[in-house]
Amino acid sequence: MAKNMMEEFEALLQESFEIDTPQEGSVVKGKVIAIEAGQAIIDVGYKMEGRVDLKEFANPGEAPEITVGDEVEVFLRAAENARGEAVISREMARREEAWDRLEKAYANEERVDGAIFNRVKGGFTVDLGGAVAFLPGSQVDVRPVRDAGPLMGLKQPFQILKMDRRRGNIVVSRRAILEESRAEQRAEVIGNLTEGQTVDGVVKNITEYGAFVDLGGVDGLLHVTDMAWRRVNHPSEILSIGETVKVQVIKINKDTHRISLGMKQLQEDPWDLVAAKYPLNSVHKGRVTNITDYGAFVELEPGVEGLVHVSEMSWTKKNVHPGKIVSTSQEVDVMVLEIDGAKRRVSLGLKQTMRNPWEVFSETHPEGTEVEGEVKNITEFGLFIGLPGDIDGMVHLSDLSWDERGEDAIQGYKKGDIVKAVVSEVDVDKERISLSIKALGGDKFAEAVGGVKRGSVITVNVTSIEDGGIEVEYEGMKSFIRRSDLARDRADQRPERFSVGDKVDVRVTNIDSKTRKLGLSIKAREIAEEKEAVEQYGSSDSGASLGDILGAALKGDK
């Protein structure tokens, strides 16, 4: 019987050992029985004790909170080591506990608390209460973080983006938390804003096209065109980062949460008084603010600009870039030509503030005035001569010479020559001045034939004998008498019966002002004389012969 009792006792004892002895690789509860040499001695049951470094009981950046008598959970790695002690770890216990907790949070898309405790390549490491997670640099904040020092060791919420327990991999995001919070804050702020409302904001950022203004958790865009009524080349001209400004809410997009702001809307619109202050044809001083290919913009006052079109810049410089006539910031006098209040446009004129040079020239140089100038250009139809007032006059081919063809006469001129001419016509509307070089000495032909009429008999000098007739001269004007006009009788129509220097009476048959030629005929003179003699001294009916009549006429002349 005693033997049976011993066997039963051994079985119960063995069963007790199996129940009380912790299983290796599991989390067990233990009690701190001593703290020495930076370690906590923990009794995990069945007279098994192990040692754990105190730092394993501390959160990153914090001092360990552990005292004798505390009950803690540890991970039993081995029941006994070479010194007969249990191999335990508080850190591994916390990790197992943390993984269980984090997996539930990840499945429920809940936030988890953690603290950034170290910087690694590409980001940071975060302690999530026993499990270490990776925080990518792009997930730290909504904007790039230059100094992460203030964030280190700070307990804050994170969102788990990805986790793999088998590989021990967890990726978290702080940015997702901030964006969610920011979105809530933006929605709240935007909900309290209305279009047309005036609010205070702080200039947060400045770009080429405007500035972003913080309205207390939400940013609004203040476009450069809404900063002032005047032209603003860059926002930094009137704003600086950190400056507090008063702005008006122009537009709110509820879907995108975008807010458009304006500053000039809080100021008086200068265009309300433009029509009254700048009547048509009035002259004002302005400042050139911008120069383009098609003209120059001139500021009449802050917020009011007008365009001087290239066609209204100069009377004489037609095909010149505006930048060669005016320069930026230059003060100029301009005339108001047109105002379009609806389109907020003012058309200005620069040349209208100066007298029309063609008008001035017509007053100071009436027709017939002699002028002198430089040959500026030579074309196929004439010469262009520079005149006072920076204008040109044209001498047409037909006005170059009395005696030569225009095509021949123009060969005697070159650019740069100083020539004299006579003003023959000034057309102010068409901006044209006609000049004549051949009129300098007067019209010799008109002077020579001033008293001569068709049918007149004049005396000419023979200057040349040719086969077809003779060349004669009258008052310096040369004409040619054809062989058939040299005499009434064919036998006498011989050029050789005349000599150079002979004086001959001829009858004028034609006066051509265009070709500047006289039509002359000896034959016509003889026929006219014969007719006159017949009328005075007889007729064929009286029986008198032609010789008798002519003889009588000659005696009468004597």
UniProtKB/TrEMBL annotation:
Repeat is among the record's keywords: yes
One GO BP annotation of this record: translation
A cellular component term, taken from the record's GO annotations: cytosolic small ribosomal subunit
TM ranges: none
Keyword line: Repeat, Ribonucleoprotein, Ribosomal protein, RNA-binding
Gene3D superfamilies for this protein: Nucleic acid-binding proteins (2.40.50.140)
Protein purpose: Binds mRNA; thus facilitating recognition of the initiation point. It is needed to translate mRNA with a short Shine-Dalgarno (SD) purine-rich sequence.
Name this polypeptide is given: 30S ribosomal protein S1
Species the sequence originates in: Thalassobius vesicularis
